[in-house]
Automatic annotation (TrEMBL):
InterPro entries: ARM-like, ARM-type_fold, ARM_PUB, Armadillo, PUB12-19-like_N, RING-Ubox_PUB, Ubox_domain, Znf_RING/FYVE/PHD. It comes from Populus euphratica (Euphrates poplar). Its EC number is 2.3.2.27. The keyword Repeat applies. This is RING-type E3 ubiquitin transferase.
Length: 688
């Protein structure tokens, strides 16, 4: 169902009066002849059709008079044609689209009908009834319609609002994975909601599922990840409801097969035939499209389709980048848990006495049963048990928090992102589990949050997750870089901006990320801005990110163009900034491009600063200082060489470094001394 009405293009010139009236009669009859009105928006649609029928009488009277129309009436009729055309599209969208999704959007759709009625009244404002030869009945009907349209109120069916709230409550409870009697109560309420919107047969359920899948596919890849998650939640609910209501009445046989299976297991006999019997009764909607087995851990991929986590992970890890079901290229590789379907699968398993056996836990139980051979093996198994329990706890927590981010209120999202931020702060295992729980796409969405704390927590959680190598690729694949740069440029808090810079530093460790970020010039400008405005830690993060990006040759010029060089030189004079070594390292790197060399040579204060740093700088600072001086003196740097020779501290500092510096510093100091000797040779006054 369209989220908004498409604009209707009307020619700047008017249709001939006869053609315009005929077009109005034709489109009015199309609207008036709509049959089988949808249950959702029924009152708005039926009222709108009645209004269009009244207008149809007006158009037919005008055609019968067959007299010239005044200009104002032609303008009115043209506007009415536009309005009725959009009425037709809106009604058709309500008929063809998903009824459940229409129920979720009931207020939005009701507002669209209200806007169209108001536009209809506005068009009738300029209709010169006194100049038209109309019957008394038609005139009276049009005047009545005009008055009603002018004072009409927004009509939102209270019954639809009630059903909408019930549906949202069911979705929320399923997302929280409630079970037991509450799950049964939800099913009863869900069945009532589905009946109220006209779903009564298997075919109608199938049609509704197809419409929801089409809506999910339309939303996938457009940034509407939360919307896709909500639609998949609804699909899961409808699918489960259908399986419960219309499944073949063979539960007793399933239970008997399960009893036989349990008896065989107790006697350590073969249970393969019983397992096959149980598996054969799994609803198709609960089977993974890849393995055709019951989905124990259903996840949603970027295309909007759902698979079992193990199956789709193997598919992706084998090098595929497309959705197995649709063939659509996946814009990111994040696997978003389908909480609603997982809850419904568990509910179905409980209702049908089908055990959900986790392969990993099963294999662990086998290893555990072999305990007792020695104290050493007991300790090893206890350690494995504790580790597995800890990982399971992290997984449960991560999935719970991602669910809160996906479906929660702004306050809940703020708290959940903070908890994820803390959880991702320690341990590579935690970072892997959080990413597998599908957190990354949702965190990307929250980077644009208007709540300062939510944005800060989201970007910091992203920073913590990016420490894990595999997560860097997932973060980039989720289309996050532009959102991270937005936070870097204009984040709600300084901490958010600084952590965005640290995230770029972390991501840019990977060469492909250097290239991708390098195609966005505003990233360099934003980092230079933070270098100017940030705290000491923020300036260090910005300098480190710029250094990493400058390792890729093509990015060096972009850093220079962004104005980094004068600022870096200024940082060398600011002891409080605490980034002298970082600034020197970046300047030494920028020296490697012609734009950087030219910009650095423009500085009048740099050479004296570097001479002082040769004496008082850190080991790394001395190495970068001598690298800069040597580079500035080479290839036409006679002016810099003369300034070095004039400074009384330069030669002693170089000689001291040549004798006592690090291997790299000694080598470069010797090279610079030889270069200065050549400069002095003409005056027969060598140095050394």
């Amino acid at each position: 169902m369209n989220a908004a009405l498409p604009p209707i293009m009307i020619s700047s010139g008017f249709l001939p009066a006869g053609s315009l009236v005929e077009s109005l009669i034709h489109i009015s009859n199309e609207v008036a002849s709509v049959e089988k009105l949808p249950f959702v928006q029924f009152r708005n649609i039926s009222t709108m059709i009645r209004r269009v029928k009244l207008l149809s009488s007006l158009f037919e009277d005008i055609r019968e008079t067959n007299s010239p129309l005044p200009p104002s009436s032609i303008l009115c009729l043209t506007e009415l044609f536009s309005v009725i055309q959009r009425v037709k599209l809106l009604i058709q969208g309500c008929k063809d689209g998903s009824s459940l999704w229409g129920l979720i959007q009931t207020q939005f759709l009701s507002n669209q009908f209200h806007v169209l009625v108001k536009e209809m009244g506005g068009a009738l404002d300029i209709l010169p009834l006194s100049l038209l030869n109309l019957s008394a009945d038609t005139r009276e009907q049009v005047e009545l319609l005009h008055r009603q349209a002018k004072r009409v109120d927004l009509l939102v069916d209270p019954r639809e609002l009630q059903r909408r709230e019930e549906l949202l409550q069911i979705m929320t409870r399923n997302n929280q994975k409630n079970s037991g009697n509450k799950g049964f109560d939800d099913f009863v309420k869900l069945k009532e909601v589905l009946n109220c919107i006209g779903l009564g047969s298997p075919l109608e359920y199938d049609e509704e599922i197809k419409k929801l899948e089409a809506e999910a596919a339309k939303q996938a890849g457009t940034g509407g990840l939360i919307v896709v998650s909500n639609i998949n939640n609804i699909i899961s609910l409808v699918t489960y409801s259908k399986s419960v209501i219309f499944v073949d009445r063979d539960k007793e046989e399933i239970k008997e097969n399960f009893k036989q299976r349990s008896a065989f297991m107790n006697r350590n006999q073969d249970v393969s035939s019983s397992s096959q019997s149980i598996l054969s009764n799994i609803p198709d909607e609960f089977r993974c499209p890849i393995s055709l087995d019951l989905m124990k851990d259903p996840v949603i991929v970027a295309s909007g389709h759902t698979y079992d986590r193990n199956s789709i992970a193997q598919w992706i890890n084998s090098g595929h980048q497309t959705c197995p079901k649709s063939g659509q290229r996946l814009i990111h590789m994040a696997l978003i848990p389908n909480y609603a379907l997982k809850s419904l699968v568990h509910q179905w398993c409980q209702d049908n006495n089908v055990p959900l056996i986790d392969d990993s836990s099963s294999s662990f139980s086998k290893s555990e049963s072999s305990r007792g051979k020695s104290k050493l093996s007991e300790k090893a198994i206890d350690h494995i048990s504790a580790t597995k329990a800890a990982m399971d706890a992290v997984k449960m927590t991560a999935e719970f928090l991602v669910g809160k981010i996906a479906m929660g209120s702004p306050e809940i999202q703020r708290q959940a992102t903070y908890e994820l931020r803390i959880l991702a702060k320690t341990g590579m295992g935690n970072r892997r589990i959080i990413a597998e729980a599908g957190a990354i796409p949702f965190l990307v969405t929250l980077l644009s949050s208007t709540d300062p704390k939510t944005q800060e927590n989201a970007v910091t959680a992203m920073l913590n997750l990016s420490i894990l190598e595999n997560n860097k690729t997932l973060i980039m694949s989720a289309g996050s870089i532009d959102s991270i740069i937005d936070v870097l440029e204009s984040g709600k808090t300084m901490e958010a901006r600084e952590n965005a810079a640290a995230t770029i530093f972390s991501l840019s460790i990977i060469n492909d990320c250097k290239v991708t970020i390098g195609t966005r010039p505003r990233a360099f400008s934003a980092l230079v801005g933070l270098l100017r405005e940030g705290t000491s830690a923020g300036k260090k993060d910005a300098a480190s990110a710029l250094f990493n990006l400058s390792v890729y040759e093509a990015n060096k010029a972009s850093v220079v163009v962004a104005g980094a060089v004068p600022l870096l030189v200024e940082m060398l004079m600011d002891d409080k900034a605490g980034i002298t070594d970082d600034a020197l390292a970046l300047l030494a790197l920028l020296l490697g491009c012609s734009e950087g060399l030219e910009e650095i040579r423009k500085s009048k204060v740099l050479v004296p600063l570097l001479i002082d740093l040769l004496r008082f700088g850190s080991t790394k600072g001395k190495e970068n200082s001598i690298t800069l001086l040597l580079g500035l003196c080479k290839d036409g740097g006679e002016e810099v060489a003369r300034r070095l020779l004039i400074n009384p501290r330069s030669i002693p500092s170089l000689q001291s470094l040549s004798a006592d510096g690090s291997l790299k510093a000694r080598r470069k100091a010797d090279a610079l001394l030889r270069l200065l000797n050549r400069c002095c040779s003409q005056s027969h006054n060598p140095v050394g």
